[in-house]
Amino acid sequence: MGLAIVARFTSLPEAQVAGAALRSAGLDATVLDDPLPGVMPLEPDDAGGIRLCVPEADLAAARALLAAAREIGDAEVEDPD
């Protein structure tokens, strides 16, 4: 079974946070194109972006989880005061 790209990111921290969210939901998520520490990486857009991958069988679930997370992130938070 191969890996499938669930999302592409322009920053490593975003990819790592999304990967951690998927892993916390029980999915095996892997960040690819992680630049080496201390090495000046190419711009992620130039190299095709930083890829977040999951096993092909988990692709639909991973996309649904990321979509739900985006909706939560886009929701307006009311001021409690």
Radius of gyration: 14 Å
Strand fraction: 15-25%
| Count of distinct strands | 3
| Order of H and E elements | EHEEH
Which CATH architecture would you pick? Answer: 2-Layer Sandwich
Low-confidence stretches: none
Shape: globular
CATH class: Alpha Beta
Structural class: alpha+beta
Provide the helix percentage. Answer: 25-40%
Task: Tell me the domain tally.
Answer: 1
Largest sheet: 3 strands, antiparallel
Q: Terminal Cα separation, in Å?
A: 51 Å
Average per-residue pLDDT, rounded, comes to: 80
**CATH third-level topology:** Alpha-Beta Plaits
CATH superfamily annotation: UreE, C-terminal domain
What does this 3D model show about the protein?
The protein is α+β, with helices and mostly antiparallel strands. The chain has a single domain (3-70), classed as 2-Layer Sandwich (Alpha-Beta Plaits), CATH 3.30.70.790. Helix content is 36%, strand content 20%. It is built from two helices and three strands. The protein has a three-stranded antiparallel β-sheet with strand order 1-3-2, with helices on one face. The longest helix has 16 residues, at 59-74. It is globular. The mean pLDDT is 80.
Map the helices and strands.
Blueprint: E1 3-9, H1 12-24, E2 30-32, E3 50-55, H2 59-74
Antiparallel strand pairs: 1-3, 2-3
Short descriptors:
globular; 36% helix; 81 residues; alpha+beta; 20% strand; three-stranded antiparallel beta sheet; Alpha-Beta Plaits
Please summarize what this structure is.
The chain is an alpha+beta fold.
